[in-house]
């Protein structure tokens, strides 16, 4: 196999005596130590899909954590822990499965709609963390490309924050897929 950190370059060429312009396309594939759970976190205007990177004091906004299994192996364990900053209040936690998860459910055990999972997550207000066991929520392993979106709803920046303060929110994923 390839050594971790190796980048494999693939450059196709289309040659023709009738094509006046050059066509080029390159694909770079990185060899990673252990893919398994990809996560992206963004802030949104409350209740919308409009990205919002700046908010005012006492303004509500949502944080979305979109995740999926990016390995060829089933994730037998997938736990996401979100640590939110001081000065922020989270009132609800919602979850929506992605299309791959809904389509792979046989028999159908999940739906594509948003579900309030506030009572299913572990919320520690002292540590300012929210923890969700994805495999337990799914009821089975998380297969390739399966995942969803966790939405931290009505997140409020308190009046104690100053203009220009940055709210750093950290999300961590723990997973096991038989390759570690």
Topology:
Blueprint: E1 7-10, E2 27-30, E3 38-45, E4 60-68, E5 77-83, E6 88-89, E7 92-97, H1 99-104, E8 115-116, E9 122-124, E10 129-133, H2 134-138, E11 147-157, E12 170-176
Antiparallel strand pairs: 1-2, 3-4, 4-11, 5-10, 5-12, 6-11, 7-8, 7-11, 9-10
Structural write-up:
This protein has 180 residues and is mainly β. The chain is 6% helix and 38% strand. It has helices at 99-104, 134-138, and strands at 7-10, 27-30, 38-45, 60-68, 77-83, 88-89, 92-97, 115-116, 122-124, 129-133, 147-157, 170-176. Strands 3, 4, 6, 7, 8 and 11 form a six-stranded antiparallel β-sheet that branches. A hairpin with a 4-residue loop joins strand 9 and strand 10 (129-133).
């Amino acid at each position: 196999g390839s050594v971790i950190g190796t980048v494999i370059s693939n450059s196709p060429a289309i040659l023709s005596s009738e094509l006046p312009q050059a066509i080029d396309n390159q694909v770079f594939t990185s060899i990673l130590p252990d893919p398994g759970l990809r996560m992206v976190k963004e802030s949104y205007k409350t209740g919308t899909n409009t990205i919002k990177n700046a908010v005012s004091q006492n303004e509500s906004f949502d944080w979305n954590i979109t995740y999926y299994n990016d390995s060829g192996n089933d994730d037998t364990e997938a736990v996401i822990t979100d640590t939110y900053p001081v000065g922020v209040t989270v009132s609800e936690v919602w979850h929506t499965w992605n299309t791959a998860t809904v389509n792979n459910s046989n028999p159908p055990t999940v739906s594509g709609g948003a579900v309030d999972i506030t009572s299913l997550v572990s919320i520690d207000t002292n540590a300012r963390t929210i923890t969700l066991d994805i495999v337990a929520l799914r009821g089975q392993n998380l297969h390739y490309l399966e995942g969803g979106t966790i939405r931290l709803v009505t997140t409020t920046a308190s009046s104690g924050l100053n203009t220009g303060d940055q709210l750093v929110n950290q999300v961590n994923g723990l997973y096991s897929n038989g390759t570690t």
